[in-house]
Amino acid sequence: MKATDRENHTDQNHSNERGRATSFGVRKSRMKRTAILAICLVLAVMGIIGGLYYRNRNRAAIRRILQQDPAALMYPIPKRSPLTVSFVGVTNDNDGSRVASFCMSNRSPKTLLYIGNGTSLPYCDLIEYFPPDKTGMVVMTNHNQQQAFQARSARLQPKSNLTFSVRIPAGVTGEVIVLHYMPQRITYQNMVQELKRALGMRGTHYAYENFPIREPFDSFLRQ
Prior knowledge:
This protein is α+β, with helices and mostly antiparallel strands. The chain is 39% helix and 26% strand. It folds into two domains: 2-68; 80-221, Immunoglobulin-like. The protein has helices spanning 2-68, 70-74, 188-198, 217-221, and strands at 83-92, 98-106, 112-116, 125-130, 139-142, 152-156, 161-168, 176-181, 209-214. Strand 4 (125-130) and strand 5 (139-142) form a beta hairpin.
């Protein structure tokens, strides 16, 4: 009986030790999960705070640019453009308007597609910006809007150039002259349009890029 009692007592001790070990393991696992959840929560909160901070900072930066120089934000200078433009000169008319002349060149080995004014000459937007109104909105107008109805696609052969002129009405200052050309790199939008065209679908619109020209013309085009 005594030997049996000792065996039972030993089994009970082992059972208690296993129970304590299991309980400790459960508590350790819970603590680990709690710590991981706490870290994830902290990271999520920090991400939200950081996102709000940078979003507000970007909004403030964009608001400052719109108020100081909206053209720089609306019409950035394109990178790696096959189109180059040089300033030829400007003349003053008796009515106070100015005629600025430029030379447009295709420096790529491929034909350049651009928007013309119904002829081989390019169509140009003539954008004028006005100071922000009371709500902070920037007001702009296109003085060449009527000419847009005659705009057609045109082509400039590789390594060739052409000279064109833009009339700037009297009293217009800080204007942005904008040319429109087709990028020669493959873009997702143009791939979709090529597929629609191959399928015979109507309403295909290609994604043209803008080439801005700003005053002072000579120094701006030398950038």
